Write the structure tokens for this entry.
Amino acid sequence: MAISKALISLMVLSLLVLVLAQAVQTNQGTSSTLPSTTPVKPMDCGGACAGRCSLSSRPNLCKRACGTCCAKCQCVPPGTSGNLEACSCYATMTTRDKKRKCP
């Protein structure tokens, strides 16, 4: 009788240790995937900039500038012009002359 009580106690204690170990492991896994440390999924800048620059009078220049902005901001506003509120980083980038960099 004493052996079976000890065996049951040992099994319960082992189960508790396993549950705690799994909880610690799960907690460590989620702490490494915080939004601030998770790399942003790369955007298809080529396709987004092709659409953005489709009506430009200088499409190669537009695509080059758009590609630079997209690579840094990971967003391109929708449409062929305007809509800068959709991507604040894209809207605030400027050249050395304080002109808007992104088309």
